[in-house]
Amino acid sequence: MNLLIKGITAVLPDGTGYVVRDADVYIGGGVILSLGDVPEGFRAEKVIDGSGRLLVQGLVNAHTHAYMSLLRGRADDLSFDDWLFRNIIPMEDKLEPDDFYWGTLLSVCEMIRSGTTSYLDMHMMPEKCALAAGESGLRAVLSRGLVGESRGDEGGLRRLREAKADIAQFKDYDRLGFMLAPHAPYSCSPDFIEAVTEAAAELNVGINIHLSESAREVRGSIVRYGLTPVALMEKAGLFDLPCTAAHCVRLTDSDMNILRNRNVRVVTCPASNMKLGNGFAPVPELLKKGVTVALGTDGAASNNSLNMFRELSLLTLIHKGSHRDPTCVTACEGLKTASVNGAKALGLEKTGEIRAGFNADLVILRLDSPAMNPRADMISALCYSGCSSSVETVIVGGDIVMENGEIKTVDEERVIFEANRIALRLG
Would you tell me which CATH number, out of the four given (3.30.540.10, 3.40.640.10, 3.30.930.10, 3.20.20.140), belongs to the domain 59-346? Predict the structure, then answer.
């Protein structure tokens, strides 16, 4: 569909930063054709009036577990070990296959309403999560969580077969991509990691992993292998492939150099890391070293929100406080982590910026809310006062996924009903 967004205030890339100016945005074939001049032969099939609106690039949630929205609010105010091993995993064991479908759609609705157009998911149910993602209209890169005690671990090999089956079944879905996801160094042995890396190379897909999330993980790795988790994964060959590593809270300077030298994309999840008491990732230090840092929410069981505007605000505030430096992680840097850097973490090309030739993944916000006024610095407003309630319309690949607050791709009322039905069954 040829789409024209007329007379809108747009956040556009400008060298190393952003500029805010009015523009007419011409969209066709799923991409941005022009930001001003009418493309030759262009005839708009739909025109959106952009007056009193702000156009921003779609936000990219570079780490989440979409099905976990079903577990929101069920394991709060607990230590990491109590949260994961004594609460979340036992509840996951009660979930039925269709629950993962409805849980993913519940997360999809929340992400759409808060301006997310792409997400990287680590899940644990074949077919169901991909079906939901395919129906959502969003871009999604899916990765089956893999756990294995050895290269020959039958459970690990079964999960790997399931991951391969999903890739084969859904390879023709335009907006779905795939990675392999060894869960973490503490749940995957080094030789199992090697087996996963070999499989990923054969499938020509990248790697998605939790890495150096907690102090206990780092201590355990050093005691058992004499190496930090980052050094261990490098030795196992994990970084020979494109790799996206979530959390990276507990890093040495040597770890950060490895991540930089091996071009590992780091995803910081501020709310989850604070809520579980794991601390703060060294984002300023990573940025100074030239590491690509993206932003994610983690799952709703540990956040408990999938609102990327909230995450963006936390990212641009907590490091100022922890470093006692108000210039730390600027609004401009924050917006990049939530958009173009997120696209890099997902392996998406020509995504994450409002630029001719890039995918038309766009969000339109109303500017009549008190939080967005007065209109002084729109980049600062997005990071420090922006809120999901201002999101009005969401466009992915030139298709309108939400218009005037109405989600077009998912029956939101049905999803909420099913989620609460499942919650009653779980008790």
Answer: 3.20.20.140
